[in-house]
Amino acid sequence: MIDLNIESRKTLIYIAIAFAFSVAMRLIWVYQFHDFAPFHFNGQLMINTNDGYIWAEGARDLLSGTTTNPDAKEYFDKFHQLNDLSPVTSAASQLTAFFAKILPFSFESIILYLPVFLSSLVVVPIVLIAKDLKNLEMGFIAALLASVAWSYYNRTMAGYYDTDMLNIVLPMFLLWSIIWAIDTNKNIYLIITAVDILIYRWWYPQSYSLEFSFFGLILLYTLIFDRKNIFNYKLLAIMMFAMMNTDGFIRLGAVLAIFYIFTQKKFDKYIYYILALSIAAFFITGGFSPIWTQLKGYVFRDSVSAADKGLGLHFFTVMQTVREAGKIPFETFSNRISGHTVTFVISFLGYIYLLYKKPIMLFSLPLVGLGFLAYVGGLRFTIYAVPILAFGIAFLITELAVKMPTNKLKYLSMTAFTLAILYPNYKHIEAYKVPTVFNANEVKVLDKLKHIAGRNDYVISWWDYGYPIRYYADVKTLVDGGKHSGSVNFPVSFMLTHTQEEAAKMARLDVEYTEKVADKNLTVFSNIEQMTKEYGFHDTNKFLATLKDTNITLPHKTRNIYFYLPFRMMNIYPTVTLFSNINLMNGRQGRQPFFYVSRNFKDMGSKIQLGQNIFLDKRTLNLTLGKKTMPIRRFVKTQYSKDMKLHKSVQLVNFTSDISVIYMANYNTMLIVDEKTYNSLYIQLMVLENYDKNLFQPVILTPDAKVYKLKV
Ligand code: MG
Which letter does DSSP use for residue 582 in this model? Predict the structure, then answer.
């Protein structure tokens, strides 16, 4: 029977309150949109992170099948389709499928609320660490702040269904067990630390850098302060075994065996040999190589990547179009860690003071270091520093409280300061009304497509829509949130921004090459390079030119291909062009296409103002761009009739001009495009429904998204 003394009871109560608080704050977003129809599907709010859809796809597939032997031939039929990239072996999908199986809620509810409950578990290690430091109130205050602090909230809110929901929880448990191990030297913490590493690695395979930093710090501590203590070497050795680069079950076996040995006093004299063995095992299994690869990745960053062999094609890299990779200002940085610049600065000072008073907290340095990497590495890292800096300010608040003359003042000051640091974070949560990834109308299109397209068919769209398309329509895609390097984006970008004829041929080519390469396990530099060679060219430009008018023999058709063209892609059309508007032979970027979207144009009587210095003369249809005035080629107006059919009127103005204006009346949108853009698949099929009947067949046409089936 566990005897709960007052301190243990207090610990549990603090954990319970902090957990409830964290959950409640995450329900604010749910409450704000609980009756907003565009965010709902299947009677539940949809998720708001794109990446979540890949875990959802894996979980959906796991729940749909019954075969558990991955080598069985029927594995792919029962669970998912060959080459469909469904992550059925990922921890996030497996955990989700598990919860979906045992809980009486809909799948949509599970993925919406999973981050709410899992991420709130972060309060547990925070309070437990504070318990070791004999300052439970500090843990309670830090838990309240950390659970709702800006960036942690953003990445673990309701619907932010991604690995982040445990990405801080697990290393915080690791920190807790390391601190307790070093402090108490109890064997139990050896196995807890090792198992925590196993779980953390299972959940997030990139966790090795943080684990390795903890290891390094413990090693340093041992060598400098505690060289004679045999327990430290046991801790280091068991961590090494847990961190090897092998199958999780092998590591679990190794860890259990070593743990047994460590509990037997008679083996203590062999500890140095065991440690040497563990380090050897770590390096031999390649435990260090991912760390080395990552380090190299930070040093070499290039905008154009050139393959070092083969044709040496130059592709555009996605790096510079991803916002996260950019540098961030100090205010954003501190807001995201603590909710306010003042809180951050005080937290930081408090953290330094805490390190001075409680040196054992030095083991938290890797988390703070990773968090501060956000300064160069991008926003998403800030969450690692959140709980540790929360300790900083919570420590100062409790230190101040102790100095208060009466008990009443002590609690009053703690309450007041805690509310003060929570307030900016609450305000942030209240204002953070992020939309769902897709809206209900778009999802309806995909849900309909699910019953039309086969599970081995391809749906082509920009990578941003890849995961949700696969989840809702249960099909395959060429690119997605995890597969969008320059070389795989090139053909898709090419299709969306070139003529229907070029797009149709490239679609058949790229889909069949993708399947062929995966089926035969071929090593190729890129599909496009493989096509170039197999069609007998050395110059990709010459190969691409043959798609224009020549009747090249296309690969054998093994499945259907659909194009999913959402209206929302309008916003990123210029970005989409970047990936194929490049000379693959020398990496030179082509001239930017003219593409301008106006959403708040003004009728000024004789002319329409489309932008700051852009005017369209209503009578002459001359376009004025800054100081330049020119005729336009066409003026096109599109409009939906009552029965939702798109009608368009095309007014030819001047054949010598390269610029056309398209007025999309129902969208309240004016487009100014050059001739190449006008003839692109996206504009022709999505905006104008001008499809070539020999190449495409309309399948679903709605204002939000259009689906066409490829006929070749
Ligand atoms: Mg599938």
Answer: B
Residue type, 560: N
Ligand 1: centre distance to CA 136 (Å): 49
How long is the chain? Answer: 712
In angstroms, what is the span from residue 516 Cα to ligand 1's centroid? 17
Rounded to the nearest whole angstrom, what is the distance from the C-alpha of residue 543 to the centroid of ligand 1?
A: 32
For 229-236, what is the mean pLDDT?
96
List the one residue out of 490, 206, 161, 189 whose CA is nearest residue 363. 189
Mean pLDDT of 661-672: 96
Between the CA of 113 and the centroid of ligand 1 the distance, in Å, is 24
pLDDT at 522 over 60: yes
How far does the centroid of ligand 1 lie from the alpha carbon of residue 157, in Å? 28
In contact, 401 and 414? CB cutoff 8 Å: yes
Domain parsing of the chain, residue ranges? 125-135+167-436, 440-578, 595-710
Distance, CA 114 to ligand 1 centroid (Å)?
A: 23
pTM greater than 0.85? yes
CA 421 to CA 397: how far, in whole Å?
10
Mean pLDDT of 211-236: 95
The alpha-carbon radius of gyration of the chain (Å, integer) is 29
Per-residue pLDDT at 304 exceeds 70: no
Residue 197 structure tokens = 């590493």
Q: To the nearest 10°, the Cα dihedral for 171, 173, 179, 184?
A: -150
Report the mean per-residue pLDDT for the chain: 93
- Token pair belonging to 223: 């060598």
Return the CATH number of the domain spanning residue range 440-578: 3.40.1380.40
